[in-house]
Amino acid sequence: MRILKSSLQILAILVLIGGAVLALNSGRSFGANAPSDSALTIGQGALDGLTFTTNLAPQGKPGAIRDAMFFRNGQFLSLECEDRCNYPASAYFSREVVDGHEFVVEAWCPTKDATMVWRGQIIDDKVSGTVTWSVRRFYWTVGTVLEFSGDLATEEEVAAWRP
């Protein structure tokens, strides 16, 4: 019994430390529709400087939500997710592939127990992929998968394209 109690205490401490690390690494918000390169000060990445106008929709279903995504200083931001759910900019991981790049982002919401995992590819001036959104409830986890696709854009185009 004493070993179980000690193990639970250690686990609780690790969870607290992990949460603090996630909060520190989640970055800061890009803010307005046209973020500046000084909006973040963390890291560097192969996709830095890329901006896309995209459409999000539930996987395999019609309908779309207009969005814009930014890669800056080793971090990724979806404006729609920032606006709706307060998701901050998050570190992205990328690798070069034969036709372009693949990337993965895990974004954690600081106000809800929710995450979004973005998996995408950039080929020429196009981006596409999926987003797995999940939120923890009292005894279960709820989630959905969204698809996204879009085109390379300038920040001025994002400001004009997105209401």
Give a brief rundown of this model.
The protein has 163 residues and is of the alpha+beta class.
Detailed description of the structure:
The chain has helices at 2-25, 79-85, 155-161, and strands at 51-58, 65-72, 75-78, 90-96, 100-108, 114-123, 126-136, 141-152. The chain has a single domain, classed as Porin, CATH 2.40.160. The radius of gyration is 17 Å and the shape is globular. The chain is of the alpha+beta class and 163 residues long. Strands 1-2-3-4-5-6-7-8 form an eight-stranded antiparallel beta barrel.
Could you state the order of secondary-structure elements as H and E? Answer: HEEEHEEEEEH
Count of β-strands:
8
| Backbone structural class | alpha+beta
How far apart, in Å, are the first and last alpha carbons? Answer: 59 Å
Low-confidence spans:
4-41
Strand arrangement across the biggest beta sheet:
1-2-3-4-5-6-7-8
Question: Tell me, what's the shape?
Answer: globular
Strand content: 35-45%
CATH architecture: Beta Barrel
Question: How many domains make up the 3D coordinates?
Answer: 1
Mean pLDDT reading: 77
Measured on Cα atoms, how large is the radius of gyration? Answer: 17 Å
Q: Mind summarizing the main beta sheet?
A: 8 strands, antiparallel, barrel
Number of helices: 3
CATH class: Mainly Beta
Amount of helix: 10-25%
CATH topology label: Porin
